[in-house]
Specification:
alpha/beta; UDP-N-acetylmuramoyl-L-alanine:D-glutamate ligase; Protein-Tyrosine Phosphatase, Chain A; 2 domains; 8-stranded mixed β-sheet; 17 strands; 17% strand
Length: 454
């Protein structure tokens, strides 16, 4: 296979291609339609149909759940492809094989295969292919060329018209749904749920995370309409037990095929336990050949798979003395989960926040969710052109925290330094001091780079 014979392609060419793709319409400025991506994939020979797909939608927890599914499948001996978004440091993170980001040579070769067809599609439509559409096509093309045994595909935004939704997935997972991306998805959970429910199809088995009643009603109505059988967290599967452990948590999970005890998950937070049981159920359904599990999966393999799960930027400890934790929460529901997890997992006597959000996000809602666990907050802004200006964010923070608990720094590196200094003011109790950097995935990515994360 030609794509596999390009190990010596330079990083420079891969970086050049990333810039070419980034020159297209960004993810936050899209024109919803499946017409363009379908046209491109038709020209490529429909690579999206080359391997079975597990499709993951929702508001929060998509990436972590997708990574868990992939790791479990790999543990069971399958060659996996994973498509997730957004990325932290490199665009190549979005396309992965067996848990590893696509290498520069394969990335370049895949783009070179796709690139000749881009102007053909651009010329036939009023709107050019977007950044995300090009990457989606590259993901499906790379998975077909490898080939993989199964592709775990996370939607970018929404569901029905998301560029990834050109497949009839064998398993469709819907993680918790909350308010986000209101300009595209609607400003009620019912509207958002209706859009995300678009991945539930007659060909699929639906795995539904625990949802608000209004969301569950929408999802179940869609499933009934299209004839998609579903399993619901809290009914057909669920978290049986959960306790803190060194470096993570110890779980008891009930899947479709039975119970799985003493499962170590090296991620923190109750929300990750719920992501884990959704991932397990999805793998049970997939390995069962469709609409139900064929008995309990091998417990040793399940334990081994979960023990190897990683999810960078999700309650990730990036340094100590004082402890600095990074979390990519970018909406109020995510921030609430972060606050609960930090309170449970860390014995901080003084926690200082570094907060920077995008201008189109509910920054006040996030600050309100974080306020009970933060002694102070240093507000700043990321390098993204979408970033909310630090001064504007500071005005919101003062309303939530009070002026005496808010500092402002225009630069993220200075903000982190200020937060560390504030945390260290705990003096003799430094061991209980911490810093939480959160507010957006871009903020966490930039903080990771500053603090030496890979």
């Amino acid at each position: 296979m030609r794509v596999l014979d390009c190990p010596d392609v330079s990083e420079d060419r891969a970086a050049e291609i990333e810039r070419e793709i980034l020159a297209r319409a960004p993810e936050h400025d899209l024109t919803p339609s499946l017409d363009r991506i379908k046209a491109l994939l038709d020209l490529l020979g429909s690579p999206q149909d080359a391997a079975p797909v597990i499709h993951v939608a929702g508001t929060n927890g998509k990436t972590s759940t997708a990574r868990m599914i992939e790791t479990l499948l790999h543990e069971f001996g399958l060659r996996t492809g994973r498509f997730t978004s957004p990325h932290l440091h490199s665009m190549r993170e979005r396309i992965a094989f067996d848990g590893q980001s696509i290498d520069p040579g394969r990335f370049v070769a895949t783009y070179d295969d796709v690139a000749p067809y881009l102007p053909l599609v651009d010329e036939r439509h009023n709107v050019r292919l977007s950044f995300f559409e090009v990457l989606t096509a590259m993901g499906y093309a790379a998975f077909a060329d490898a080939p993989v045994d199964v592709a775990v595909v996370e939607i970018g935004m929404g569901g029905s018209w998301d560029a990834t939704n050109v497949v009839d997935a064998q398993v469709a997972v819907v993680t918790p749904i909350a308010i986000d991306h209101v300009s595209f998805l609607g400003d009620t959970v019912e509207q958002i749920a209706a859009e995300k429910a678009g991945i539930l199809k007659a060909s699929s088995f639906g795995v539904l995370a625990q949802q608000p009643v209004a969301v569950a009603d929408v999802l179940l109505a869609r499933a009934a309409e299209v004839g998609c059988p579903v399993a619901r967290e809290g009914m057909e599967f669920g978290v049986v037990s959960r306790s803190l452990a060194v470096g993570g948590q110890l779980l008891g999970l009930r899947g479709l095929g039975g119970e799985y005890d003493e499962v170590f998950l090296p991620l923190l937070g109750a929300h990750q336990a719920h992501n884990a049981v959704c991932a397990l159920t999805a793998v049970e359904a997939f390995l069962g050949g469709g609409h139900e599990a064929r008995g309990r999966l091998d417990l040793d393999l399940v334990r081994a798979g979960f023990s190897r799960v990683t999810s960078p930027g999700r309650l990730e400890i990036i340094r100590t003395s004082p402890t600095v934790v990074l979390d990519a929460a970018h909406n109020p529901a995510g921030a609430a989960a972060t606050a609960a997890a930090v309170s449970e997992a860390f014995g901080f006597t003084r926690l200082v926040g570094v907060f920077a959000a995008m201008g189109d996000k509910d920054a006040r809602g996030m600050l309100e969710a974080l306020e009970p666990v933060l002694a102070e907050v240093v507000v700043t802004q990321s390098g993204s052109p979408r970033a909310m200006p630090a001064d504007e964010l500071a005005a919101l923070a003062v309303e939530v925290f009070g002026a005496e608990r808010v500092e402002v720094s225009a630069r993220l590196d200075d903000a982190i330094d200020s937060a560390v200094t504030l945390a260290e003011e705990e003096g003799d109790h430094l061991a209980g001091a911490g810093v939480l950097v959160t507010g957006s995935i871009v903020t966490v990515a930039e903080a990771r780079a500053l603090l030496g994360g890979r």
